[in-house]
Amino acid sequence: MGLWDAMRGRSRPTRNNLDSLFLVPSAAITLQTAAGLEPTGLGAVCYRAAAGAAFAQTQDDVVTLIRDDPDAPEVSLSTDPFGFTWLVVDDDPHDLTGLCTDLHAVNTSLEAQGFQAGLLCSVVPFASSTGQKVGLVYLYKQGTFYPFAPTGPQARDNLLELSVRDHLAAELPMEQDLSRWLALWGAPGL
User: Fold this and answer.
1) At what angle do helices 96-112 and 53-67 cross, to 10 degrees?
2) What Pfam families does the annotation carry (predicted)?
3) 137-152 burial by CB neighbour count: b if 16+ within 10 A, else e?
4) Which residues, 6+ apart, have CB-to-CB distance to 143 below 8 Å?
5) pLDDT tens for residues 118-170?
6) What domains appear along the chain, each with residue ranges and CATH number?
7) Which residues contact 145 (CB under 8 A, 6 or more apart)?
8) Which residues are CB-contacts of 98 (< 8 A; sequence separation ≥ 6)?
């Protein structure tokens, strides 16, 4: 940002970097060793569905693209109480790279067809042997990650979230503004 932009109160919007999703498999190794959290095999992209045939066709094309993979994961669509659509990919927990590739493809396809304004986030859930769950949430508009660790209805484990952030700070672009760490109640896999 230049001096003139600063004086006028303007800032440049943060650009997302969808390729950051490909950093999740290496970050998963850190989560496994440092926190005992394993990938669940689920992943989801959350977006606001647009009205019209063009969006419906794009969404159908994305689902078909993922299902046409030789080792096709299960793909489902659901709508949450807030009106957001979740495209859920259920894959082998040992193929986190494939899962992240599928999530990247969903985001990229919606973006390429002009529906980027509706993209909210992508979530990759992890779980421990004791039942603790943590989702690595990629904020599309910010290009950053944050952990979300629900412990029950409307309750979350903030200490675990901060611990995961600290473990992954060197591996993923972590969201520094805690006010952007949205609670994703009812997110698939969490």
Assistant:
1) 160
2) PspAB
3) bbbbebbbbbbbbbee
4) 14, 15, 16, 17, 20, 173
5) 999 999 999 999 999 999 999 999 999 999 999 988 999 999 999 999 999 99
6) 29-180 (3.30.70.600)
7) 20, 136, 137, 138, 139, 168, 172, 173, 174, 175
8) 69, 71, 73, 91, 92
